[in-house]
Amino acid sequence: MVVHEERPIKPLFAKGPSLGVHLLVLVVLSITLMVVDARFTLLKPLRSQMGLVLMPSYLVTDLPQRLWQGVASQFGSRTELAAENEKLKTEALLLQGRLQKLAALTEQNVRLRELLNSSALVNEKVEVAELIGVDPNPFTHRILINKGERDGVVLGQPVLDARGLMGQVVELMPYTSRVLLLTDTTHSIPVQVNRNGLRAIASGTGNPERLELRHVADTADIKEGDLLVSSGLGQRFPAGYPVATVKEVIHDSGQPFAIVRAIPTAALNRSRYLLLVFTDSRSPEQRASDAAIAQEQADRQGLPASAVGAAPAASPAAPAAVTPAAAASTPAAPAPAAPATPATSAHPPATAAPAAPAATPGAPVISRERH
């Protein structure tokens, strides 16, 4: 008689932790990572590498928009293109006329700075970047651009569009960067009223269409329509770039400060192509020393200081604007040497001696500018 031993039947699906346990573990892990990322800097290298890995996904998600723009541009009507062409020609003509005036003002600024022995930047070097992502958090105004550390971008670098300043770089990755916009609640920028030079601090409100000026005296000379430009006092943003236009000024007799609201000049919600500004990283003392050396070399060569000292400080595009005016200002260069005796032409080395004392007062002048 054969006895068959009965074996327990194995279940078809092995039982494990329930879905609720998995969900709880993932929630705890997510909260832990968010706390560590917000409080510590341990995950910054990981985030940088993840940005490098996710770069293809940004390009893929942006591909439909690029294709749609390409198709739309190909099938645009001839009438619209002709009208747009005429409009662009008119704008180009107007801008060329303004550029001629700006070139004269730029050269006048160069000559005045030469008198102060200051070689501060007149034109900054810029590089075009493209917006490829927007932070989905509605309480954080940040964007992602397609230029990163490999392209020479640095933390704190100013970013602007065709209308004005947009913000600054706050996070670097190898091929991309994150930009904090002016309207973010954590961002402030020193500005001044272009009409009278009144200084103030413009802070973000969380609204992409509004900035606020903090601690402006109720009796301050500021009114609706005033243009606010960057003052450069924070040593982060270059001076003279448009920031916002004053929309309303509310005076309250019971408050020591007025309520000033402004609209950013930059199209923060619409601009796709941006400019990264590379400013002069030299200290004021180093710029003064370079200006003194350039002045001494100019005296030895018989050239104006702008022809010698402007090239190292300005961008690669600056010589096109500076060189013609430098040649035009050559006849005015001998003016500082007019009090010299006729023996100056007979003894050329004697012109170098007055140059050293002339450069010495430069430091006090620059220190006054820093205040």
Descriptors for this entry?
single chain; 371 residues; alpha+beta; six-stranded antiparallel barrel; six-stranded antiparallel β-barrel; 9 helices; 12 strands; 20% strand; extended; disordered C terminus
SSE arrangement:
Blueprint: H1 19-39, H2 44-74, H3 78-115, E1 125-134, E2 142-145, E3 158-160, E4 165-172, E5 177-181, E6 188-193, E7 199-204, E8 211-217, E9 227-230, E10 242-250, E11 257-264, E12 273-278, H4 284-301, H5 305-313, H6 318-328, H7 343-346, H8 352-359, H9 362-370
Helix pairs in contact: 3-6, 4-5, 4-8, 4-9, 5-6
Task: Summarize the structure in words.
- The chain has helices at 19-39, 44-74, 78-115, 284-301, 305-313, 318-328, 343-346, 352-359, 362-370; strands at residues 125-134, 142-145, 158-160, 165-172, 177-181, 188-193, 199-204, 211-217, 227-230, 242-250, 257-264, 273-278.
- Strand 1 (125-134) and strand 2 form a beta hairpin.
- The strands form two sheets. It has a six-stranded antiparallel β-barrel. It has a six-stranded antiparallel β-barrel with strand order 6-7-8-11-10-9.
- By secondary structure, it is an alpha+beta fold.
- The chain crosses the membrane at residues 20-40.
- Residues 287-310, 326-371 are annotated as: Disordered.
- Residues 340-364 have a biased composition (Low complexity).
